[in-house]
Amino acid sequence: MLQQAFNGLVGGAFYALLALGLAVIFGMLGVVNFAHGAFYMLGAFGSYILLDHFGVGFWAALVTVPLVLGLAGALLERLFVRRLAPLDPLYNFLFTFGLALILQDLVKREYGVQSQPYPRPEALAGTVDLGLFTYPAYQVFVLAVSLVVCGAVWVVLTRTRVGMIVRAATERPELTRALGIDVGRWVTPVFGFGIALAGLAGVLAAPMRAVNPLMGADLIITVFAVVVIGGLGSIFGSVAAGFAIGLVSALGNLYVPALSQTLVFILMAAVLLWRPAGLFGREESPS
């Protein structure tokens, strides 16, 4: 049971990174970024391409790929998302949905639908003794990186002036504008940062999971459920719900395998019935 729970925490590490990026983007822009899973897939394929075509290893890809995707996300926001922002939110949803399909098909056209192999770094090829059981070193590394990144983001958002402005603009954009802060200047870097988190999760996933064009589509629906459970726009709620859902899914596979694929959505429905804003979301007043 403990080993399965640890598996859940490792799976929750990916949910937490992806949900954190989604929560920041939705909170500041009000955009449901359906292309988030596609950028997660591009992160995995970016590391594969760097290794296969240029001989660039995992450690360099871990820095380079999220940076490149973050810059691409910032450019995407400036050229397209910003132009659609004044319109109905459905337009940006349809745009990101269409973008996800385009990116998936471009990758499928080049590499097909078969999974591409990506080796684990040699330094993390062994196992780690955790006392009651041994566990692959790479999975321990993934969990540690996710905790460090989420913790670092939390410290920046709560302990620095820039972070407090971004957090205020994410959770209460209208009130932040009313206080005289130019929210617009923070939109592009925050959008790029959210995309970079998806790219980081993709690079971390490449040695663990099948690198294929549909890997993001298979994951993004669950990540949206995680964000809803944690509370739309709630940064802490998204991270906490990510790890919690990872645990629930892993233990569900162990004890109720027949419901393992739907357990997350059953939990989401129960949370919404009890608290429509999510566990950590802010309830809107009737006025």
From TrEMBL:
PANTHER family found in the cross-reference section: ABC TRANSPORTER ATP-BINDING PROTEIN, BRANCHED-CHAIN AMINO ACID TRANSPORT SYSTEM PERMEASE PROTEIN LIVH
Family indicated by similarity: Belongs to the binding-protein-dependent transport system permease family. LivHM subfamily.
Localisation: Cell membrane
UniProt record, GO biological process: amino acid transport
Membrane topology: Multi-pass membrane protein
Membrane-spanning ranges: 12-36, 56-77, 89-107, 137-157, 186-207, 219-247, 254-274
Keyword check for Chaperone: no
Stretch forming the signal peptide: none
Matches recorded under Pfam families: BPD_transp_2
Listed GO CC annotations: plasma membrane
Main location: membrane
Molecular function GO labels: transmembrane transporter activity
KW Iron (keyword) present: no
Name of the featured protein: Branched-chain amino acid ABC transporter permease
Keyword set, alphabetical order: Amino-acid transport, Cell membrane, Membrane, Transmembrane, Transmembrane helix, Transport
